[in-house]
Amino acid sequence: MSKRRVFDIDFEPDAGPGPEAETPPQPASETRRGPMAAAISENADALTERHSAEAEIRAENDRLAHEYVSLKRDGAIVARVPLGDVAMQKLTRDRSTNRDPDLEELKTSIRDLGLSNPIQVEDTGEGYELIQGFRRLSAYKSLYEETGDEKYSAIPAVLVAKGEALEKLYRRMVDENMVRRDISFAEMGQLASSYARQMDLELNDAIAVLFASAGRQKRHYIGSFSLLMDKLGARLQFPEAIPRALGLKLIKALEEQPRTAQQLNVLLEHQKPTDAVAELAVLNKAVAPKPAGEQAAPSTSSKTTIKLNRKSGAVKVIGAKGKIELQMNRDFGAVDPRKLEAAVRALLEQLDL
């Protein structure tokens, strides 16, 4: 068996740093990292930076979203809304749909100066619901129909955040028109009745909510016109033209003489007034004082008693709401039914009933 030889290798003495020794030595841990480890480390750092940036963007978006909603609720966001996207279904309007005599003046102002006060709408997600600005929206629609100018195809509007309480939306609409002081008692009364039905409230409670800023006397007038509109509203074509004094006279007549509502409805149906003047003439005639010598109809709110002396004996007649009584010493059950019927018919005809 041969033996291995051991050779001694003599290295030359260190000649000092050469050209390649100018770079300082790296730590052992760095010098041992391969290309794959370096790539993974760089990728992890990039992911960390990206996640941090995304978190900052989300936080900024959340802040802007909250600020946007807050601004919408405060009525500080204005946009141009296409006319066709504005609906009027959620709220019962407190404005008559009859021809507005001042609409032409509003249209002229918009043509010359533009719309200085945007309408107010609720963003429903699928469109917009009108809250304030019925006349302004009507003026824009009329201008677009007349001119075809695209600048009238969309209207400046303040956006209200979706889901605001219905009571607040009604109050917004009512308060705007009350400040302008040109809304009629009939329109306010009709709105109060509609709101009471929609919210399942008593009429007085509905008036207290909607017209909280009005005085006690004015709320009383609104209540009276609510009753008037409930009794005559279906026949009235120009209720917004009814003055306060005439409205109060009408409701008093309706309360004291229930047949007044039926008579007025017949007159309005027969005459079919074509304008406010003609309609007011019919209403004024219904409450005009009776000519001298004409027997006034007895009030149905109280009891009337009449005593008659006849050969057959004394007769006491009592008239009250919903009934007439004849009291005398006679068995009316023994009277021939045909004669009794004929007598009652004659009585009703004499009373025009």
TrEMBL record:
<dbReference type="Pfam" id="PF02195">
    <property type="entry name" value="ParB_N"/>
</dbReference>
<dbReference type="InterPro" id="IPR003115">
    <property type="entry name" value="ParB_N"/>
</dbReference>
<dbReference type="GO" id="GO:0007059">
    <property type="term" value="P:chromosome segregation"/>
</dbReference>
<dbReference type="GO" id="GO:0005694">
    <property type="term" value="C:chromosome"/>
</dbReference>
<dbReference type="InterPro" id="IPR050336">
    <property type="entry name" value="Chromosome_partition/occlusion"/>
</dbReference>
<dbReference type="InterPro" id="IPR036086">
    <property type="entry name" value="ParB/Sulfiredoxin_sf"/>
</dbReference>
<feature type="region of interest" description="Disordered">
    <location>
        <begin position="1"/>
        <end position="37"/>
    </location>
</feature>
<protein>
    <submittedName>
        <fullName>Chromosome partitioning protein ParB</fullName>
    </submittedName>
</protein>
<keyword id="KW-0614">Plasmid</keyword>
<feature type="domain" description="ParB-like N-terminal">
    <location>
        <begin position="84"/>
        <end position="178"/>
    </location>
</feature>
